[in-house]
Write a structure and sequence with these properties.
Strand content of chain A: 25-35%
Number of strands of chain A: 10
Largest sheet of chain A: 7 strands, mixed
Distance between the termini of chain A: 53 Å
Structural class of chain A: alpha+beta
Oligomer: homodimer
Helix content of chain A: 25-40%
Largest interface: A-B, 22 and 22 residues
Shape of chain A: elongated
Order of helices and strands of chain A: HEEEEHEHEEHHEHHEEH
DNA sequence: GTTTGATTGTGTTATTATGACACAATGTAA
DNA sequence: TTACATTGTGTCATAATAACACAATCAAAC
């Protein structure tokens, strides 16, 4: 089926497949080159960008829907994913679209479930940047990572959703060793620290940080050191999965 | 309009007023006689009890809907209320009803939006027990407070919703001085401590508890003492609203 | 080859927060 | 007047945290 035809069908008949009035928006965090990043889609119907999102099949668990949507956008299967907030303002999506776009597709705005009010469930995901293969969706012409500090204009209330997710991530940091989901298998202590600093938005003392992280017991130091650095080579670490899981259950207390 | 007629209309035409597939369930916490309590409704269509809940008007903010629902059940206007989780299992409400009840009302199950799948947004509320006037809803024949430790059988997944709310409340305790919402204007230190102990489900040291609470600066000791106790009379305290709000913004760190 | 610069690994100390604990004071009831 | 239950307050040992310094090592510059 041609893309235009698919879009048309989605606008006119999507409500036969999906629950009306409810959507899911995902804030996908990644970490690369010492920067926290978020995955965004370039909408084809406006100059703005959007969070990857989608809808819930009539008999699908909301969590499953979020997983499915994420899988389609990132190719990733088992990722850290959880709901963090519901956005239920009736005016949240009543913003201006590009009418030309819909005219071209032959869609009348009062004719489609897609222009109804939507309540959106926000999910946030932490992914290993290096393993993601971004794929735009039907309504997007591109898919890119953006530095958190450098996010473009977003549609609807997506900016607010992103900010809420970020706040939530900061809170989580003390309970959840989020590094496991955001970093590759092996990583150095400075890299891990940089991740924490980026999320929290503040500098941390190198030595105290190391002590606290080590004390949790969730890390395992490898014998290997990083090669090719113009200074003392840092050790690689990886997460000790068994201790990591224990710590999760115990609800690791942890202040930075 | 007669109740039966109202119910009938709700089942057959409610979807003209409300969003389909989405509901709100409220966990209303109160504190009385040194016990944490929750407000429940006795369903008229089964032997079970239910959380007070309702639906979202087509142009209503979800938060407003929760407020409205709560106002109708408790008579209270300005209460501490917030969403804590979305329950999105497609099977969550596919449980057995009392068919007799619906037959009596002349409602066919495949004929009403009310038997569709619902995604429910959980809101929890902390209220001053002494100010609540419980009012059952259209589908309930009663409305009562239950001790948290002594909750009867609940419909659907309401037990799980309640438990999730309770967990959330425990987490909140460290960030939010919840006492303000659950206690009357003036209260004694032992009463406040008992509240914390009940929510956390563990005993706290009397002297350490007092020190920490006092150190936050959110309390103001009155000159008045409690009368009519067969032992040393405890002082009354009230919340220092200005410091309380400051502490909220600063995100009071606080471990028990 | 030696030096330089940047960065890592590690340990000490002062300060603060926490948990465990004891005794004097007070109001009613016996 | 005494007994009892419960409150108000303070101390001390221990644990957690923040601030801080120096030696080791790698690549690049000379």
């Amino acid at each position: 089926m041609k893309p235009d035809k698919k879009i048309n069908e989605h606008f006119l008949k999507g409500d036969e497949k999906y629950l009306r009035h409810i959507s899911i928006d995902c804030v996908v965090f990644g970490f690369h080159e010492n920067e926290l990043k978020v995955l965004l889609l370039k909408t084809s119907y406006s100059a703005k960008w959007a969070l990857p999102g989608g809808f819930i099949l009539k008999k699908e668990h909301t969590d499953e829907a979020a997983k499915r949507i994420l899988k389609e956008r990132t190719g990733l299967d088992k990722i850290y994913l959880q709901q963090f907030h519901v956005f239920g303002d009736p005016g949240r999506s009543n913003r201006k679209f590009n009418d030309e776009y819909f005219k071209k597709l032959g869609i009348k705005k009062d004719n489609s479930w897609m222009f109804d009010r939507f309540i959106s469930i926000g999910y946030d995901a932490l992914v290993d940047f290096t393993k993601v293969h971004p794929v735009p969706d039907l309504f997007s012409e591109g898919c890119e990572w953006f530095k958190i500090s450098d996010v473009p204009a977003l549609i609807f209330d997506h900016k607010k959703i992103l900010e809420t997710a970020l706040q939530d991530l900061r809170l989580q940091l003390n309970f959840h060793p989020v590094g496991y989901n955001l970093l590759p298998l092996k990583f150095t202590m400075p890299e891990l620290q940089k991740l924490y600093e980026t999320i929290l938005g503040k500098k941390l003392d190198r030595r105290n940080f190391q002590r606290k992280i080590i004390d949790t017991g969730i890390l395992k130091r490898l014998d290997e050191t990083k090669k090719g650095v113009a200074h003392k080579a840092p050790f690689y670490y990886k997460f000790d999965l068994s201790n990591y899981k224990k710590a999760l259950k115990a609800g690791m207390g942890f202040e930075l």
